[in-house]
């Protein structure tokens, strides 16, 4: 990839932070990823009572180190891009903001600490490193297969919902509150638990009629599971046959300096979204 | 769509109530849908004990308001169609009737209140509003795939049933009433719970032999789940290849004034069922 | 179908009992089916304690009536066929015998009563009545798809078994007898329960490490479920494309008078197995 | 297959131990298989408390007999191959070593006995006997289908993990430690249990909001199960169409005397890996 001749400090930061195909960019991304994983692990461990008692202070320090790093990173991201609003209101921009703010908020509001796990969403960035083009391609294929089968899935979900409400009411009438089916919403909850074959067993039918209805629901659920699978399988098989034509283009990890758009092709010279040059000068 | 020149009040009501492609018809359908959802929510919340205590009176008033609306709607539907019996004994006509009557019945018979959830079935009307042609098309495709694989599914269900009876008896002999397998029907119930991978855990084998048989049943159930999935997948893949030819026709939401038939094509001038003109005059 | 000119009483009985395409044969089959269903229902209800106390005598009488009918039917089947051994040692012949004998045995050995549910296997005859050619065709297709994917399924089952033994041992070491993992066989049982996503919950990991391993097993099981489904789906899709060629031949329900072979084509004049004429004379 | 003219004792042992297509080799493999199965069964039974009390001594003796046999076999495998290191550090070589050593170790370290179940891995050898070429082919196909869909599966697993962390935290906040959701890691564990439709029921939501979130997770899990299935199905269908071209070559069970490489074709004269002659001389 041809790089611009003159490098300002802004363009350098932009390259390191936003791109993953230069050595510096790669190292930055790996460090970022490790810190995100660490921060998520920290929040999880903090919630374990006897961990918190033993290592509470270390957790607190670690939390602050990571938050400060994230704050600096966020500020750099905002100033190194030509059009900051494009980053700030983008999907990743909002996640970055929301995952940085909770610790500051915890000074004012108690309990916001748990919000720190939103940082897990930042893990989505991981795909940028692991041979990004290939994985994003797979992810897109998955997303596309799901999107294309959305009307089918909506019809299916709607049918499941109506079935659950009817069957839940039936179970409420048959079993009644004395066997754990306390109200219709709880019965509908039980119905979903059974239809999806999860079957916690916190509530279970006791009367003969209730067990019979449960059997019908279970066999139905067993049959119904075939429907979304069939939908996605068919959609996926279709996708795979179309694939060869799409395989030609290879995306890289460059990010437009002007509007922050991603997914530029390898030979692209201008941003496919705002039309400004991809070379920083 | 060309509309008739002379509008009687009956034809106007017919248009508003039965069709969803005029603005008035759309608004009516959305209001109807909201009321149906509200009424289902009401019945569900009423069954929650402490909700009923707090807001019981409001629930009761809301229930009556909705029931009166449904009653008026039902009467209008009957009088605005030329051949009322065609509507009254149609699928939706029966559902409309059954979902209106329970509150009136509750004067005479105690406990019919819970029947109000049958109103959930009225939710099926939702498909008429959400870009109907597309969703009904998807729904039809799903239904067709299921209908075409019916003989395969019946054979499969029959095999599952015979297997459950045999395995249930076996478990009853091995585990016996002292471990929760109280009778053969209960054992068969447990068997279905296990085969469908629901696994409530209200009954679980205790003896070594019982656990061994349970393992065999589970692995079988695990393998068997592949069968309906495979059936529907194959059927669906077939459907998708046939699809293009069917895509040509677009259905609208018009309903015949004479016989109440639905699913007319966009250019249709006469009802495809009874042959009378689709124009009201 | 051309029928033999001279009818002896044996040939008449043969026609009624073994074939389902004459009116008399159809009526006989339906009666037989109802009696089989009744007898299975009887055995199941007998096992329900308070049913047995109330209606025990009726159950006993009903049991005997059915057993005598089955005995007479069995004797007629044996004497109306030219080569009795062909029937006696056939699959259905053995099932018929085993499902007739238990009540007689109960005079000598206590507890054989429960064996009466083997009669459920006789239900397989139902396929002969319900438009047999179509359903047997579907059944054969299912069986063939399963048989063709047998090597794949065996490899898969073997892998699952090895995985279960290893993971079960691991859980036994990690959780130990004090958390319900009493021995390696019990741990392997728990492992199968988890891998197949049944999840009874009678045994559940308590330690952090145990829960972590359980998570890995569950996600594995979740992924593994895709394998048999994929196998059968692929096999089934293949079957469906081959189908048209096989559709040409139509089987009927005739049974050879000499050797008892089934599945003769509609125009067949001679048994495809022993070569003797299908006309009784 | 043409065999070498001069047989040294080493080449004879090599033939018996490493190959499965001579009668002696087949018998050796069957004996080995039985001993492996026996040894795994022994370890499993030993862990059952009352079995250990009754038959402990026999288990101990059996264990030693098998271990001595395995030791001898291991030594013979090492000395009968020209390049011992090729065997010792191969997959099977390591398993053979690890599954032989635990009993010796148990003299020095207490508790290593349970490691004996690693012997289950040796069961993988069973595939060499059961018409190996065919089954290895199927196994390879399965492995290949899984390998080809690895990027898709990784993306999928990653998405599941992120979803679990977020939903687990949500449940921890909503339900809290008083309803069993003791910490975020435990909540994430519960989330995986629910998403995979295992549903132990050791932890179950109690509050209305918790049950609502659980319902969403379950329906999601139900939908998500379709994704890996769809992936593998599509991959498998692809594999099956490519199959015919690969079917031409047949592998045998010969093992190179020099480097221990397997999977030689039936007409192969030289090792496909190190190039040395397959004839021992």
In short:
By secondary structure, chain A is an all-alpha fold.
Molecular structure report:
The structure is a homotetramer of 281-residue chains. By secondary structure, chain A is mainly α. Chain A folds into two domains: 5-131, Four Helix Bundle (Hemerythrin (Met), subunit A) (Up-down Bundle), CATH 1.20.120; 138-237, Helix Hairpins. Chain A is built from eleven helices and no strands. Chain A has helices at residues 9-18, 23-46, 49-79, 84-88, 91-100, 102-105, 132-148, 150-175, 184-195, 208-224, 226-246. Chain A is extended, with a radius of gyration of 25 Å. At the A-B interface, helix 8, helix 9, helix 10 and helix 11 of A face helix 2, helix 8, helix 9, helix 10 and helix 12 of B.
List the helices and strands and how they pair.
Four copies of one chain form a homotetramer.
Chain A: H1 9-18, H2 23-46, H3 49-79, H4 84-88, H5 91-100, H6 102-105, H7 132-148, H8 150-175, H9 184-195, H10 208-224, H11 226-246
Pair of chains with the largest interface and how many residues each contributes: A-B, 45 and 53 residues
Shape of chain A: extended
Name the structural class of chain A: mainly alpha
Query: What's the overall average pLDDT of chain A, rounded?
Result: 73
Number of E-type strands of chain A: 0
What portion of the residues of chain A fall into strands of 2 or more residues?
under 5%
By DSSP (H or I, 4+ residues per run), the number of helices of chain A equals 11
- The CATH architecture category of the largest domain in chain A equals Up-down Bundle
- Kindly, what is the distance between the CA atoms of the first and last residues of chain A, rounded to a whole number of angstroms? 15 Å
> How many strands, what sense, and barrel or not for the largest sheet of chain A?
none
Let me know the CATH homologous superfamily of the largest domain in chain A: Voltage-gated potassium channels. Chain C
Contiguous runs where pLDDT drops below 50 for at least 5 residues of chain A: 1-5, 127-134, 241-250
- Percent helix of chain A, as a range, is 55-70%
Please, how many domains of chain A? 2
So what's the CATH class of the largest domain in chain A? Mainly Alpha
